Amino acid sequence: MTRINKYIAHAGVASRRKAEELILSGRVTVNGEVMKNLSYQVESGDLVEVNGIAIYNEEPVYYLLNKPRGYISSVSDDKGRKTVLELLPQIKERIYPVGRLDWDTSGLLLMTNDGDFTNLMTHPSHGIEKVYVAKVEGQANKINLRPLALGLTIEGKKISPAHYEILKQEREKNHSIVSLTIHEGQNHQVKKMFAAVGLPVQKLSRVQYGPLTLDGVPSGKYRKLSKKEVSQLLNQVR
C-alpha cells in the first residue's frame, strides 16, 4: 500500500505537497469516489483519477536536457508557445521540468516524473549549486560585482552571496561575459542580480546543476541520468 499523496507524486502528476492540494480541493477520486483523506493508503486494484484522468505509478526516470532559447519550461502552454516537452518526443513517461528556465534562457534543465525528487531539488532550503554564464551589458569588474559576493536584497528578499568570475570583457562592444554560481532559485534571480549592479543581462545560460554539466549534450538534445548521478544529486540535499 502507498499513501495517496505519494502515489500521485510517483505517477509524475505533482509533488507530494501539490498532491495534497489536489486531494483537498476534491480533484482526486479513488474508485469513482472523491477522496479527501490525506492518509488514505492506495491498494493494488484501486483506480486513482486526478481531474478525471486515471493515473498509474511509473518507474521514475531522470533526464538532462540542454534547453535552447525559445522554449518554455512547461508541459503545455495556452498561448501556443513551444514547450520543452517537444524536445523529448520519444519519452513514454509523463515527465515535466524540475524547476524552470526562462523562455529566453538556455542550458541545463532536469526532466523527471518523480514528484519527490522534484520537491527536493527545488526546495529553497536545500541550496543545490547552479552555475550560469551571462552576457551582460557594460564592463564587469570587481567593484560593480562586489555586491553579488556580499549578498543583495532584491524586492525585499535577501539574496545569498554568490560566487562570480569574469570570463571576458569586450570594451568595443561594451559587454562582458560573467560566470555566476548561486544556491537558490528565485524567479528571474540571476537577471535581477545583474540588473541590481547595473549590468543588464543580454543572454543567459545555465551550464551546471550540482555535479552535472552539459558536456556531450548539444543544444536541444538530452540524455538519461545514471543511477550514480541521481544519487549524487540526492546526497547533496540530504
From TrEMBL:
GO-annotated cellular components: cytosol
Coiled-coil zones: none
Enzyme Commission number(s) of this protein: 5.4.99.-
Chain ranges of the RNA-binding S4 domain: 2-59
PROSITE patterns: PSI_RSU, S4
Keywords on record: Isomerase, RNA-binding
GO molecular function terms listed in the Swiss-Prot or TrEMBL record: RNA binding; rRNA pseudouridine synthase activity
Family: Belongs to the pseudouridine synthase RsuA family.
Protein's name in the database: Pseudouridine synthase
UniProt source species: Lactococcus hircilactis
